[in-house]
Specification:
single chain, mainly alpha
Length: 287
């Protein structure tokens, strides 16, 4: 009888979580889509920033309306009051993302035979970097709100943090399956990135750490190396990136995220976050 009650209770909690997440996704997706039609057509250089702004506002609205107002969850629950504080968490995440992306791109050059050439037009790089940087910052926030944040925490309440992280990571990987030059390998790596970012979200750094890490990773690949980001190329006037001959190492046209260089970096970064989170919990004073 106890087992039946426990199973029924878990099924009920899981069903409720799925319903809340579906409502969240509907509000976030619909409002972001509607906002994308407001205002004049952006200049090509700012198209990523405007699209990402619409998505970020949409899912921020969903977080507030569904998560805070309707489901009555606190900002701490949603990851926005981390123990590190918001500025420290965000900056720490950026540093983490930069280091890991530089490691993956560096391995692609050293081991995979990829090349990074300095063309010298750094004045043009600055002009291109500002709108792209804003775009990457907002795109990272959009994906963190949509895939981590309220959905991940709500699902974790029902099935546990481990299964919720796994399910969220699978969804994150599949969401990138339609990207240019995507492969099975790249999908697995993006799913591993989902695990990494979920560990960041559940860490003392919370949502700011996950947001900063996501931004630092994408911005470093594109602006620091001109490497493709999840299959998309963002041309730089100052740097030229060319993949090596072995796609399984450096990811080929998909970028480093499609090769084993990212697999290794993601595993290392995830392990570091798990160790940090466990050490932080042990250091907490007993209640």
């Amino acid at each position: 009888m106890t087992a039946r009650v426990s199973f029924a209770d878990r099924a009920k909690r899981t069903g409720a979580a799925v319903a809340w997440i579906a409502a969240f996704s509907l509000v976030g997706g619909a409002s972001g889509w509607a906002l994308s039609f407001v205002g004049p057509e952006p200049q090509p250089a700012w198209s990523l920033a405007w699209t990402s702004f619409s998505g970020a506002v949409g899912f921020a609205l969903a977080t507030w309306l569904v998560g805070r107002v309707l489901d009555r969850r606190s900002w701490a629950y949603l990851g926005w009051r981390p123990r590190t504080g918001v500025p420290t968490g965000l900056l720490g995440g950026v540093v983490l993302g930069v280091v890991m992306a530089a490691g993956a791109a560096g391995l692609a050059v050293l081991v995979g035979g990829a090349t990074v050439t300095n063309t010298g037009d750094w004045a043009g790089w600055g002009t291109a970097a500002v709108p792209l940087g804003v775009g990457f910052l907002l795109a990272a926030l959009t994906e963190e709100l949509a895939f981590r944040g309220y959905p991940l925490r709500r699902l974790a309440d029902a099935v546990g943090a481990g299964p919720a992280t796994t399910l969220g990571a699978i969804g994150f990987g599949l969401a990138h399956l339609g990207n240019p030059s995507a492969t099975t390998f790249s999908t697995v790596n993006v799913a591993l990135a989902g695990v990494w970012l979920a560990c960041a979200f559940f860490s003392p750094g919370g949502m700011p750490l996950a947001w900063g890490a996501h931004f630092g990773w994408n911005a470093t690949l594109a602006l620091g190396f001109e490497a493709p980001v999840s299959g998309y190329v963002f041309p730089s006037p100052a740097i030229a990136y060319h993949a090596g001959a072995h796609r399984w190492i450096d990811g080929g046209a998909f970028g480093p995220e499609g090769g084993i260089v990212t697999t290794l970096v993601m595993l290392a970064g995830t392990a570091a976050l798990v160790v940090w989170s466990r050490a932080s919990r042990k250091a907490e004073p007993a209640a």
